Amino acid sequence: MLDYDEEAERYDVSRGGEPRAAAAAEGVLSLLPAGARSLLDVACGTGSVTRRLASGREGLRVTGVDRVTAMAEHAAARLPGAVVLADARRLPFRDEGFDAVSSVWLLHLVEDPAHARRIVAECARVLRPGGVHVTTVDKGASHNVGSDIDVVLAARPYRPAPDAPEVVESYARECGLVPAGEARFPGRGQGRSPRQAIADLRRGWFVTLPPGHPLADGFAARLAALPDQDRPRPDPVFTLRAFRKPLPGPLPDARRAG
Asked: What is the pLDDT of residue 255?
């Protein structure tokens, strides 16, 4: 896995910058209840999306949280007084304190299902009844746009996606959340060229082909043989899923009477 303390300085520019952040925030906001007034952005990273969430809807109070110090420092510079350094598995907030909770590009990084369950459970815990948890799903598949790069990379070792839609939905249902919608948004500026794909491979972005993997050089050579080495292929398209925390139902007559 990448060292996100080291990645913080170049994170935005290497991942589409402000255009991608704007698209992500627009997608999240499209799934929020009309009356939402508070939102917790879990794993807020550098705060590029978080800042746009805060400015994208009048009256919405946004708090960011990230466990990586360098990331949180960048986010705090963008949203002074609104960013907390903490682990998503142990959120330092009271029960039912937010109208909405978002987690963009997080669960694909969580290898241990127990940790992923804990993160979703924490998001559900701090969510008010009637509110929604919005999260990206199947991030790896989002980058498969049918390009010649994807044809080459299709042969790499298989790993089940830790953020597959059905897996994330199962975690949400375990916490009492129910599906409440879906949205998609483009990863603007993230279309890879073959040369960029090779650089990403060398840096360890493809988790099933980490640096030093015996197959990595072969994939790099096949990518280097593709035409138009510096021409970006189409942008990825990311998927968001929303899960609602149901409002409590009416008590049975006997309990109300008692």
From this structure: 46
Name the residue type at position 153.
L
pLDDT tens per residue across span 24-51: 999 999 999 999 999 999 999 999 999 9
Contact partners, residue 126, CB within 8 Å, separation at least 6: 40, 91, 93, 94, 95, 96, 97, 98, 101
What pTM does this model have? 0.89
Domain annotation for the chain: domains and CATH numbers = 4-145+159-192+235-246 (3.40.50.150)
Q: 207-242 pLDDT, tens per residue?
A: 788 888 999 999 999 999 999 999 999 999 999 999
- Which residues does residue 42 pair with via DSSP β-bridges, in sequence order? 65
Q: What is the CA radius of gyration of the chain?
A: 20
Which amino acid belongs to residue 167? V
Give the closest residue to 95 by CA, choosing from 258, 245, 255: 245
